[in-house]
Write a structure and sequence with these properties.
Helix content: 10-25%
Structural class: alpha+beta
Radius of gyration: 21 Å
Number of domains: 2
Strand content: over 45%
Shape: elongated
Distance between the termini: 85 Å
CATH class of the largest domain: Mainly Beta
Number of strands: 11
Order of helices and strands: HEHEEEEEEEEEE
Length: 134
């Protein structure tokens, strides 16, 4: 009887570990919001989910397998630094988001990764601070 109880304890422990691993993988996933999500009233949900998405977004150009854009979501809204890239992997722009809106300095880059435009954004309204002159 004691051996049977030990086996049950080991099986329960094993299943508990499997469940923890599953939730660790699911909660740390990275998605491409254009492919894996759907916006409802400006809030991102994963397809077939009723809970706003929290986690990383990383989208890849299919043509050459390079990053298109990357950032994070919190409760279905963009949050923190988002970086956008050209198809040749050069940086296109960077912007900080707070509660799903652009807030802070937005930088626009040329094909040599040089800043060509600097903008100040607040609540999704951006004004040019300076622009490179040719």
């Amino acid at each position: 009887m004691i051996k049977f109880e030990k086996k049950i304890q080991y099986l329960l422990f094993f299943f508990l570990i499997l469940i923890l691993i599953f939730f660790a993988i699911v909660s740390s996933q990275t998605i491409c919001d254009d492919l894996d999500g759907k916006k409802r009233y400006g809030v991102l949900f994963l397809k077939e989910s009723e809970k706003p998405y929290t986690g990383k977004s990383l989208c890849i150009w299919d043509i050459n397998n390079t990053v298109w854009y990357e950032g994070n979501y919190k409760d279905g809204l963009k949050e923190g630094l988002w970086t956008f890239y050209n198809i040749d992997s050069t940086k296109k722009s960077e912007i900080n988001y707070r509660d799903g809106k652009m807030n802070g300095v937005r930088l626009i880059y040329d094909s040599n990764n040089q800043i060509i435009k600097r903008m100040e954004c607040k609540e999704d309204i951006c004004k040019t601070i300076n622009q490179a002159i040719d």
